[in-house]
């Protein structure tokens, strides 16, 4: 019994040390890998969040500064951005994308000690290093590698071909990177499971057209291919376009018919190239397209009606081409369409053929500017515009959803749409689902602006400029509480600027120039920020910021009450002013006559009573003499 108590006493004395040491055994992370992570990030500078997000606006939504939360002596498997194998405890994932790191990765970096890595994301950091410093062969288990926008330079080393387990390789937007044909070919031969290949923006001038065969080795697995802005030759691109397993394709050069028959293609982005000829004439009834972007090419001819078979289409951007046709009203069948951009083509005619009670029910961006459409504005289309449906009290921007496509293991792909907003052309790389714009400018529309536009509670931009619209600016526009840009310039609008527009607290851009508007310019709030340019070409406008003041002649038409009060007395202020003027001139003339000739008898009769009797000269002398004598007697 005594021995038992002694052992119990010793155990209780040493229990804290046992418990503390045992807690260290609960760490999943290996000590050497924890040290390697800390040493890897130590030499880097970390930029401030504001300057960082300005540098990478299209690739990074937020700045988390994950490495600042890493604490030495804690389990690295719990660190933000670090993933460990739940059994072995080895670090298998490192996600430092958009971390704001600045520095150089040298060959002796402890990053290369993490030999069990399967996922490595260093995208959108300013690493500014020669790519041959990067020891790719130290990561034999790597399946996902993202070095997008890292400022790497030089020729990609052949060691990259050792990454035989790769399923996704992203080297986009490293403009100083270049490929040797042998390196690329060997990589494609070894990485037989490759599904995603993003090489856009890298230099592939040395890759010959007849080397396309190595891509066909992956025809059953490769689903996403981005070779835009790589300098590939046209024959090369034409063969790539017909890879049968492709789901997403970003290229440049002519469009063969085969792209319309891809059974799995969901994203086809061929924008800003020199594609010519016509669109593929027959899209498959099994079309799976979610996004078709052929913006800024040289395509012509008609729009194929078979495109209506792509029932999942969300984004259709055919802007800046030479397409000559009527408005494709048959697109109303596409109930999922969010973005429709047909700007700067040769489309013409009326927009009036309504086939559904609610056409385009999900449309948020509608841009048909720069065509030859005529007639009235398409009010029926506007009534079903999705920008009306969002609650104006819908909450803050932190809950915004984005038009993304959760494809290929939840990879996020951004849609790119060019719109004219706030007076400038802007390219939207990431489109909020709450972002709504209408641009029908530079056409031949006529008639009134419908009151229904006031129901667009979610609209960010409205551009109806350079048409032949008449009538007044609807007062209902004051209800467009989220509006940031309003352009009604170069029309034939008349009347006053509604005071209700001063309720638009987010309005940053206003252009009402070159119309027939009159009266006072509303004052206060956002209207105090606009310059003369917003109102020029309206000779009837007055008030700040114009130099023309609002005097009586420039004021707005009088109210009915004022008109009634003037008519009650039979005349207004103008006859009274004329009367005052004439009376003043008459009075001056009469006074001058009195000075010369004395008071007229008729005037004295009116204002002075009976005239005094005239005294004869002799009597006046006698009276004078008498008074003089009296004065002399008194003096003596």
Written account of the structure:
With 636 residues, the chain is α/β, with parallel strands linked by helices. It has a domain at 276-392 and 401-557: Ribonuclease Inhibitor (Leucine-rich repeat, LRR (right-handed beta-alpha superhelix)), CATH 3.80.10.10. The chain has eleven helices and 33 strands. Strand 11 (224-226), helix 6 and strand 12 form a beta-alpha-beta unit. Residues 66-85 form the Leucine-rich repeat-containing N-terminal plant-type domain.
How would you summarize this macromolecular structure in one to three sentences?
This protein is 20% helix and 17% strand.
CATH superfamily of the domain at 276-392 and 401-557: Ribonuclease Inhibitor
Shape: globular
Parts with pLDDT < 50 across at least 5 consecutive residues: 3-25, 391-414, 554-571, 606-636
Please state roughly what percent of the residues sit in beta strands, choosing from under 5%, 5-15%, 15-25%, 25-35%, 35-45% or over 45%: 15-25%
Distance between the termini: 165 Å
CATH topology of the domain at 276-392 and 401-557: Leucine-rich repeat, LRR (right-handed beta-alpha superhelix)
Helix content: 10-25%
CATH-derived architecture of the domain at 276-392 and 401-557:
Alpha-Beta Horseshoe
Sheet with most strands: 17 strands, mixed
Give the overall average pLDDT.
Answer: 76
Broad CATH class of the domain at 276-392 and 401-557: Alpha Beta
**Helix-and-strand structural type:** alpha/beta
SS summary, helix count = 11
Instruction: Give the number of DSSP strands.
Output: 33
What does the radius of gyration come to?
42 Å
Main location: membrane
Membrane topology: Single-pass type I membrane protein
Subcellular location: Membrane
Pfam family, one: LRR_1
């Amino acid at each position: 019994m005594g021995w038992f108590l002694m052992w119990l006493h010793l155990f209780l004395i040493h229990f804290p040390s046992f418990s503390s040491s045992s807690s260290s055994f609960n760490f999943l992370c290996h000590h050497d890998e924890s040290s390697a992570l800390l040493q890897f990030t130590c030499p880097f500078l970390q930029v401030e969040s504001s300057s960082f997000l300005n540098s990478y606006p299209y690739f990074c939504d937020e700045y988390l500064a994950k490495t600042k939360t890493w604490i030495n002596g804690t389990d690295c498997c719990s660190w933000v951005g670090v993933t460990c194998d739940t059994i072995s405890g080895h670090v298998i994932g490192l996600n430092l994308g958009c971390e704001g790191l600045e520095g150089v990765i040298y060959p002796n970096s402890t990053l290369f000690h993490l030999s069990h890595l399967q996922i490595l994301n260093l995208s959108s950091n300013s690493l500014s290093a020669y790519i041959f410093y990067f020891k790719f062969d130290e990561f034999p288990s790597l399946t996902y590698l993202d070095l997008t926008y890292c400022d790497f330079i030089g020729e990609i080393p052949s060691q990259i071909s050792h990454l035989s387990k790769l399923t996704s390789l992203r080297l986009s937007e490293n403009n100083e990177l270049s490929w040797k044909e042998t390196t690329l070919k060997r990589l494609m031969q070894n990485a037989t499971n490759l599904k995603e290949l993003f090489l856009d923006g890298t230099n592939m001038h040395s890759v010959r057209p007849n080397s396309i065969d190595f891509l066909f080795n992956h025809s059953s697995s490769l689903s996403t291919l981005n070779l835009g802005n790589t300098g590939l030759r046209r024959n090369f691109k034409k063969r790539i376009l017909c890879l049968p397993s492709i789901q997403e394709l970003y290229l440049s050069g002519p469009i063969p018919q085969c792209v319309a028959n891809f059974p799995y293609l969901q994203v086809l982005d061929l924008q800003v190239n020199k594609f010519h000829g016509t669109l593929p004439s027959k899209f498959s009834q099994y079309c799976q397209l979610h996004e078709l972007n052929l913006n800024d090419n040289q395509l012509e001819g008609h729009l194929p009606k078979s495109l209506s078979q792509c029932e999942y289409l969300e984004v259709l951007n055919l802007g800046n081409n030479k397409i000559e046709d009527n408005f494709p009203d048959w697109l109303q069948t596409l109930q999922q369409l969010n973005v429709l951009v047909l700007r700067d083509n040769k489309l013409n005619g009326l927009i009036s053929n309504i086939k559904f009670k609610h056409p385009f029910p999900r449309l948020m961006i509608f841009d048909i500017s720069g065509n030859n459409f005529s007639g009235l504005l398409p009010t029926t289309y506007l009534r079903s515009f999705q920008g009306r449906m969002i609650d104006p009290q819908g909450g803050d921007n932190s809950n915004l959803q984005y038009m993304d496509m959760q494809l290929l293991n939840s990879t996020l792909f951004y849609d790119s749409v060019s719109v004219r907003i706030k007076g400038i052309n802007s390219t939207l790389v990431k489109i909020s689902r709450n972002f709504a714009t209408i641009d029908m400018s530079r056409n031949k529309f006529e008639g009134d602006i419908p009151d229904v536009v006031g129901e667009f509670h979610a609209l960010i931009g409205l551009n109806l400029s350079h048409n032949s619209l008449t009538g007044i600016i609807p007062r209902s526009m004051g209800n467009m509480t989220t509006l940031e840009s309003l352009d009604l310039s170069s029309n034939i609008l008349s009347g006053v600027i509604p005071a209700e527009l001063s309720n638009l607290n987010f309005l940053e851009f206003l252009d009402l120039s070159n119309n027939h508007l009159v009266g006072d310019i509303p004052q206060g709030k956002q209207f105090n920020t606009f310059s003369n340019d917003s109102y020029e070409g309206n000779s009837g406008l007055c008030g700040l910021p114009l130099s023309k003041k609002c005097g009586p002649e420039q004021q707005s038409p009088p109210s009915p009450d004022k008109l009634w009060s003037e008519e009650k007395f039979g005349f207004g202020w103008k006859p009274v002013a004329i009367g005052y003027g004439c009376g003043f001139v008459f009075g001056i003339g009469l006074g001058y006559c009195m000075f010369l000739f004395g008071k007229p008898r008729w005037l004295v009769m009116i204002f002075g009573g009976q005239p005094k009797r005239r005294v004869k000269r002799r009597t006046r002398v006698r009276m004078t003499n008498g008074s003089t004598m009296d004065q002399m007697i008194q003096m003596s």
